[in-house]
Amino acid sequence: MPRRTDIKKIMIIGSGPIVIGQACEFDYSGAQACKSLKEEGFEIVLVNSNPATIMTDPEVADFTYIEPITPEIVEKIIQKELPDALLPTMGGQTALNVAVSLAESGVLEKYKVELIGAQLPAIQCAEDRLLFKEAMEEIGLDLPRSEVVESLEKGCELSKDIGFPIILRPAFTLGGSGGAVAYDLNDFKEKLSWALSESPVKQVLIEESILGWKEFELEVMRDLEDNVSIICSIENLDPMGVHTGDSITVAPAQTLSDREYQIMRNAAIDCIRKVGVECGGSNIQFGVSPFDGRMVIIEMNPRVSRSSALASKATGFPIAKIAAKLAVGLTLDEIPNDITKETPASFEPSIDYCVVKFPRFNFEKFPEVEPILDTQMRSVGEAMSIGRTFREALMKAIRSLEIDRYGLSDPYEEEFNNLNGNKLENKIFESISTPNPDRLWSIARAFRLGFDFEDIWKKSTVDPWFLNHISYLVELEQNCKIPDLLNDYDSLKLLKENGFCDREIADIRGVEESIVRSSRYKLGLRPVFKKVDTCAAEFEAYTPYLYSTYDYEDELGDIEESKSIIILGGGPNRIGQGIEFDYCCVHGVQAVSEAGFDSVMVNCNPETVSTDYDISDRLYFEPLTLEDVLEIVHRENPKGVIVQFGGQTPLKLSNSLVESKVPIIGTIPDSIDLTEDRERFSKLLKDLHLTQPPSGTATNFESARDIADSVGYPVLVRPSYVLGGRAMVLVHNSQELSKYMNEAVKASSDRPVLIDRFLEDSIEVDVDSISDGNDVLIAGVMEHIEEAGIHSGDSACSLPPYSLGPEIIEELKRQTRILSKSLGVVGFNNVQFAVHKRQVFVIEVNPRASRTVPFVSKVVGTPFAKIATKVIAGKSLKELGFDVDPVPKYFGVKEAVFPFKKFPGVDVILGPEMKSTGEVMGIASKFGPAFLKAQEGAGSKIPRKGKAFISVRDEDKAAMVPVAQSLLELGFKLVATEGSHKSLLNNGMDAELVFKVKDGKRPHVVDLMEEDQIHFVLNTTSDGQSIKDSRSIRRTSLLRNIFYCTTLSAARAAVGSLRDLEKNEITVCPIQLYHSGNFH
């Protein structure tokens, strides 16, 4: 049937900021959907609060609203744009929940907006735990025994019938938020309270435990003619009990018999029909008993999901693109397959390789939390690999993670070597029975130490099929020790076919990686490259989407020398390196193609737009290790390789690539090294007559103490060569310094620790620029809203600056230009400054793309990553028409988003080490409304009235007074602890006195917060003890969704935005109008 002609304008809602459970896979799906529907001639209205996405580029949709994704704001946009239809299935749970709210409140009916892709009854049936249970029972599908509860009392009553352990699954949540396993009644009460608070409809499914069962997912597509296709089957290596986003997953499913697969396939088709998803993609999850084969359906996502992105990359079938076309009336048999150009989308993909997805965790950022996995997702990213076998794909996935592991070698060998007897056995069994990020290595360790196969299976409940392959890989480690291995083609090829990289072989042999590599080259042992084609090579593939393997037939063919430019991606998302760098990579490959070169993308992240097969001329889905990159360079013979867009990942390879005669284009690696080498960098600043805070480099505690005594406490300490402020700490005295040097880091001459005098009460500023080697374009000057000491990635910031004077801004620009020219920067440069008592200090220089590039690009309206790429490829800024620094006549505010709720017990206070997973942007004609929008986009709504609690450190008491006065004038009542209360009274302000928690008297401030009597919290701290004393205040604010500020500067900005709100109503406007100057 032809596409619909009765609708002209379609609204798509994005997923908002990157959070655990909802990452950049929805940028991929949203961008595909926009592109797909524009191809069909529809006008697209996009709503998304995340500036770091490709989908919010102004050319992707016709009207792009970077606004908070709330029902109230989306209604304003609907009122303004009057779309004919709303597609809610491309923006994860966020978009789905907002769409449901708009439908149930009558907004869609009022403005005659039709839901397409998934109707309201279908969404409700899939998301409402009770309706889904009843629907599945009606069609005879088995489910775990369960009950739906909406109160703690009812849950406790029904738990007796189900029996412990009990699985808790809140309704309408993402990433398993609030999900848990309860092992007894007390545990159950605590976890059910949390689960109920996380569900927007206050509904939780309590379910019989099927811990240890096998878990499967099917990606299913249906069109309006009731044609149904299974796009991909996915099997979790980790058994039930671990969120699928935290599990190692394998595609296609490996351990189902054909009969079992057909039963599951039929069940999935029955499910999508019963729920009523008329068209589009759905993800359906099943559990299978390893003992009797009983199959139960777990849940269904009536939308494009995290697994949809994985399935798309695994098969080459663009699920989001096809789902968008199905939503407007096309059928599967009418849509051509881009890769084969012969088969329609109704052909179910068939693959002749194996895909492994491996999650990436950041537990080290939250040391208060035990690294244990359960039904609530905690991974921050993932890597995907492709191999001819499961073993090859698994080993490639491991080295793709960038956790300094290259195979199954024991990362904790010394620790376990010191154990024996019962202690060793207990430790081994504990490490494989408790789900944790290291369980795969624990299983390998058990095999290596000779533990019984059946004991390992019973303790881990990992399917024996997977265990056999892990066991075989451990056995192959002995082959790495064959004396003449490096001259033995067949023995070395066996290891390479099973995924052993040069580094792993070298480590086991105790030699340098280069020795293994040169021996392999001499033997002529190199990988071939295969194409991902959706059809197991039955039809020719026209899209070069490639993976390496040690096989015979090569499908890449000959490539013209010096015709391509390679861009190295950022690998798996992690805190400190996320979607912002992928944004730069995508713009980079687009600019390379525009410049007349073949664009080549190398990455291993299945969530990203950069790994979409139609973004670059050639896509290599490969690990970003030296070995894998060199093999691609060997085949490509490129004009150059760009390393400055993918964050720290490619930068760490740059020196080794230069040593291997790889042509790095753009800023030379030595200049990047200079900025990381404290002594060389300090000399450069001195030669340029620029100022930096007093500092030094230490290799042990004694030298660190001497430096700290010399520059004066407090000091900022951090390891060199890190991203995201990893292990960066503000130290107030020698005791804290000793603890840091002895526990937090292992300092040495190879890994020195950097120590800087901390400039208290200073303003931090980021400046992004592009240099062509002669001229420097200042892309944006961003003033941080939080005061110095908070990582730039965690601080809100304003573009243009909201309080800095023009003289200071010009001085910041002047120093940026001097630094860019002195370093010979070609491409991006990011400089971080501190302004202290009107004096400018250089904090650090990063001659690469920074995480602020997408934000600056969206505010200014210029694709700076494309400009930087063209400069790197040889164009001058003048040739490109950029000779004046852009300064927007409106304000953009970036705010960070944090994963604290996923980690119980973690303190929400911010510091020098980055902890945010994503960001949002607010944009408005004035700073106040832009700041307010950014807060709402981040899920932190500033209250308009109520009680404000104030407790600040002594140093802030004077500066707190104007903030308190403004709160009173806005109609707030004040509540304060003793010291702040006294200061308020002394300044003529009425305030209610409240006890601190540590006073031991009731009611204390947390009591008031629990009783919903506090609506605004201002709490600043000085040293470690005061941080500890006030921790419960911040944690309660988080859990009770109370607006809180931990810095005075944030409180000032919040109060200022409320004052602006008194005068003006919040308005919405597409970024296209801001960029053209027609905003209001």
Tags for this model:
alpha/beta; 38 strands; seven-stranded antiparallel beta sheet; single chain
- What structural class is derived from the secondary structure elements? alpha/beta
Give the CA-based shape. globular
| Beta-strand percentage range | 15-25%
Helix percent reads 25-40%
Stretches where pLDDT is under 50 for at least 5 consecutive residues are: none
Rounded average pLDDT: 92
Number of helices: 38
Count every beta strand, where a strand is a DSSP E run of 2 or more residues. 38
Largest sheet: 7 strands, antiparallel
Strand order of the largest sheet: 14-13-10-11-12-15-16
Distance between the termini: 43 Å
Rg is: 28 Å
